[in-house]
Design a protein that fits this description.
Blueprint (H helix, E strand, L loop, with lengths): L10 H14 L15 E8 L6 H13 L4 E8 L2 H9 L4 E5 L3 H10 L16 E5 L5 E6 L4 E7 L16 H7 L12 H11 L2
Helix pairs in contact: 2-4
Length: about 200
């Protein structure tokens, strides 16, 4: 499979997926607000850089098989997929990989870059990014600036294999392990901390 064929080129397909994403996330909101819509809970956290690894792709595969979804969409929210990426390079910084092919093509897709700009691969130029499946039973939001990604699932749905999320942490641990690294002198304001715990401890 040519990795270029994994990316989204068609505007109508983009519109279909942006509607799916907007039904799950409030994409214009920043932390410490709750990025997820009200119908999502059971939030867990991991390190952002881990999402750029083969191990993460295997976790995506396990999660996707649980919900019987045919593929995972990896979609960059920032930089802007339409105004920036499509206009500059002729396609979206979004790719979808069939479930059984995740381990084979995920890293290659992350590293793929436009011929005009090596620096614009998703591996290097993705400040906010989501991972989502067609059923939307679960989704992941990544924020490079805060060093984290956040897993959430639909209210009423629960991941059957707890081992899949074994390394994921609570919001309190995420604040101590990763988020504080983005603050000056690693000191998180009281207000930020309280809002994070309030919004993601459910």
């Amino acid at each position: 499979m040519n990795v270029k064929n994994l990316f989204i080129y068609d505007v109508d397909e983009y519109k279909k997926f942006i509607n799916l994403i907007n039904n799950v996330f409030k994409t214009s909101v920043d932390l410490p607000e709750n990025i997820f819509r009200d119908c999502y809970n059971n939030f867990l956290f991991e390190e952002f850089d881990w999402t750029m690894t083969e191990e993460f792709s295997e976790k995506l595969k396990q999660l996707t098989k649980e919900t019987n979804d045919p593929f995972v969409l990896t979609a960059v929210i920032e930089p802007d997929p339409f105004d920036y990426y499509l206009n500059e390079f002729g396609y979206f910084n979004w790719f979808k990989i069939p479930t059984d092919e995740l381990g084979k093509y995920y890293l290659e897709a992350l590293m793929h870059y436009p011929e005009e700009s090596v620096a614009d691969s998703i591996l290097y130029n993705s400040q906010k990014i989501v991972w989502i499946v067609p059923s939307a039973k679960w989704a992941i939001w990544g924020d490079r600036s805060y060093e984290i990604c956040i897993f959430g699932c639909q209210v009423g749905y629960q991941i059957k294999n707890a081992h899949t999320l074994k390394t994921w942490e609570t919001v309190e641990n995420a604040l101590e392990f990763w988020i504080k690294l983005s603050f000056k002198d690693q000191i998180i304001s009281k207000d930020f901390r309280q809002q994070m715990i309030y919004n993601y401890k459910k």
